[in-house]
Specification:
Layout lengths: L2 H4 L5 E5 L8 E3 L9 E4 L12 H6 L2 E6 L6 H8 L2 E5 L2 H12 L8 E6 L4 H14 L4 E4 L4 E3 L2 E3 L8 H13 L4 E5 L2 H5 L8 E6 L7 H4 L2 H9 L5 E8 L3 H10 L6 E5 L6 E8 L4 E6 L4 E6 L4 H16 L4 H9 L9 E2 L7 E5 L4 H14 L4 E5 L9 H12 L2 E4 L9 H9 L9 E3 L3 H11 L5 E5 L6 E4 L2 E4 L2 H9 L8
Helix pairs in contact: 4-6, 5-11, 5-12, 13-14, 14-15, 16-17
Length: 496
């Protein structure tokens, strides 16, 4: 593809060299550059691509995108016969160039973007389940995995960089996908990864403290999420029971894109009433502007009702009727690492959940308290090199809503695990033996199961679907569910 064509609609400030060169690929990592590639220099959170221009050229780069002037630029142009394009913002340029390179694929698929602190993963899976039950070919992009027509693409980001995103959408077009449900993180919105994705529907779940190491305060966090709803064409779906959702609704209600609100009150367009909570399912009466009826959801918890209301609202906006929605809901299976039970013959309720924010942990523990017949034991920790403000909040919630909590490592990364524990303990005022510190997560899970008796509930929180643990600069295999199953199969404690 000609460089000039790739640069269509890119905000170019200066260019040096010829645009009439053939480009065979794009990369923003100099190690992935091949012959006749375009190298886009982006400034990351830890490093700057502008520092690796020489490496990119040695690896075969034919053209370079920059957003700041660098030393030795004229030598690159004259001696290496390299085209250099200076743009206003490299991340925006990467997004546009990637979309151009793959033929603007998101324009050819219905895209549903889900943003908010909690619930994104569950909602995308629930959406795919209902849409597939109604004969749609679906794709999914999110925290657990990226999935296209049954093929799984592993991911280490909730929302990939724009180049990888456009590549995924290109694969979807080849596979004739109808609808893609994708998680849209605040980072991806702020860092322009989704700038050139054509969203049909946007969904807002809720906003609670998280990622404040990056966003600094909740207003910045909200404003990052808000960007999604200025990009949609068909509908915006907003939880207005959430205070930030109500603010977002006020800011977007007069846009050309229709807004559908959901929640538990009659002021919402779509709401649930007459809710019955059970230990492993919920029943409620669904009310929409066009139809109403009973819904049975085989996932417990009030947070799950909010999730399914978001999904129903999106399906409603696409024209699905009550019977079609109920058919899809009846086929829903639990999402990996989201309130996922660990089956065993010991009579203990063991649950693995990704809850890694104060609100998520509170929701899960509050749900457990509704059905627990015995004591509640929680195993949790907080990630290192991440938002420290939530640590004491999570400590307080775990301590107050459980009978016993074991504080352990999550992914400490480069941070001292004891420092993380000390931050958590700031939220725990009493010293009456209701908690224990066991840094080794494997031993923490073992101890929790050993302490549990029949009808007790053990919640293993924080990592959910993750199958690894990051300690310093090393990644170790670690799966909460598999570790729990191992100890549940052993005779490590007396049972009734």
């Amino acid at each position: 593809m000609k460089l000039g064509d790739l640069l269509n609609n890119v905000d170019i400030q200066q260019y040096f060299g010829s645009k009439d060169v053939n480009i065979e690929g794009i990369a923003y990592d100099s190690r992935k550059i091949k012959k006749n590639y375009l190298f886009v220099c982006i400034q990351g959170l830890r490093t700057d691509g502008h520092n690796y221009i020489a490496d990119a050229i040695n690896n075969g780069a034919k053209a370079i995108i920059i957003d700041k002037i660098i030393n030795g630029l004229s030598e690159l142009i004259d001696e290496k016969n390299i085209t250099v394009i200076k743009v206003k913002q490299s991340r925006s340029a990467l997004s546009k160039i990637s979309s151009n390179f793959f033929g603007n694929p998101s324009e050819k698929i219905k895209v549903i973007g889900v943003t908010g602190t909690n619930g994104k993963t569950s909602i995308t899976y629930l959406l795919s389940s209902i849409l597939e039950a109604n004969n749609n070919k679906c794709a999914l992009i999110g925290t657990i995995q990226n999935k296209i027509s049954g093929r799984v693409y592993n991911t280490n980001q909730t929302t990939p960089e724009s180049l990888e995103l456009q590549g995924l959408f290109s694969e979807m077009v080849k596979e004739k996908v109808d609808i893609c449900s994708m998680e849209v993180s605040s980072h991806s919105l702020d860092l322009k990864r989704v700038e050139d994705i054509c969203f049909n529907i946007g969904i807002f779940t809720n906003l609670t403290p998280d990622h404040l190491d990056y966003h600094i305060d909740m207003e910045n966090y909200k404003n990052a999420k808000l960007k999604l709803f200025y990009k949609t064409s068909d509908a915006n779906i907003i939880n207005i029971d959430d205070a930030y959702g109500a603010e977002i609704y006020s800011e977007i209600k007069n846009l050309n894109t229709p807004v559908i609100t959901y929640g538990l009150s009659k002021k919402c367009d779509i709401y649930a009433e007459k809710i019955e909570m059970h230990d492993n399912f919920s029943i409620f009466n669904l009310v929409t502007p066009k139809y109403s009826g009973k819904i049975r959801l085989n996932i417990p918890g009030l947070f799950s009702i909010y999730n399914i209301l978001a999904v129903i609202s999106a399906c409603y906006s696409m024209g699905y009727n009550y019977d079609e929605i109920v058919k899809g809901i009846s086929l829903i299976k639990p999402v990996q690492g989201r309130f996922e039970p660990v089956e065993n013959k010991k009579g203990i309720n063991v649950i693995v959940d990704y809850a890694h924010t104060p609100d998520a942990l509170k929701n899960v523990l509050s749900t457990i308290k509704q059905f627990a017949k015995g004591k509640i034991i929680v195993v949790f920790g907080c990630g290192g090199d991440r938002d420290k403000t939530k640590r004491p909040l999570m400590g307080k919630i775990a301590y107050e809503l459980s009978d016993f909590c074991i504080i352990t490592n999550d992914n400490p990364r480069s941070e001292d695990p004891n420092s993380i524990i000390n931050d958590i303990l700031k939220g725990i005022e009493a010293q009456n033996g209701k908690y224990e510190i066991i840094l080794d997560r494997r031993e923490a899970i073992k101890t929790a199961i050993k302490k549990a008796n029949r009808n007790d509930v053990v919640l293993i929180a924080g990592k959910g679907h993750e199958t690894y643990q990051v300690i310093k600069d090393k990644v170790f295999d670690f799966d909460d569910k598999k570790v729990a199953m191992e100890f549940l199969e052993e005779d490590i404690c007396d049972r009734d």
